[in-house]
UniProtKB/TrEMBL annotation:
It comes from the Bacteria. The gene is sugE. This is Guanidinium exporter. Its main location: membrane. Belongs to the drug/metabolite transporter (DMT) superfamily. Small multidrug resistance (SMR) (TC 2.A.7.1) family. Gdx/SugE subfamily.
Length: 104
């Protein structure tokens, strides 16, 4: 169950990162509210997952899901560049996440 909570926490991290970008520095109410609600929910789920998962594992997986997810969202919806170095960096992050999961 902790892994499910952690996965949803990571997905919510992607959500809040995207809507933070859309809030334009918290000047737009709707995206700002979504950002704050998603942040609180993400932290709550992360906290619940940490009841049974090690700190280093949970935090690494959470930030990794958020980082790679935000990268993918940026490519797909924000027209951000997909150059070789950025893709290699994302692959390395995913490789680290897989290794962290396997070591738990």
């Amino acid at each position: 169950m902790a892994w499910v909570l952690l996965t949803f926490a990571g997905i919510l991290e992607i959500v809040w990162a995207f809507f933070m970008k859309q809030s334009h520095g918290f000047t737009k109410l709707g995206p700002s509210v979504i950002t704050i609600v998603a942040m609180i929910a993400s932290f709550a789920l992360l906290s619940m997952s940490m009841k049974t998962l090690p700190l280093g594992t949970a935090y690494t997986i959470w930030t990794g899901i958020g980082a790679v997810g935000a990268f993918i969202v940026g490519l797909m919806f924000l027209g951000e560049p997909a150059n070789t170095m950025r893709i290699i960096a994302a692959v390395l992050i995913v490789s680290g996440l897989v290794m962290m999961k396997l070591s738990s």
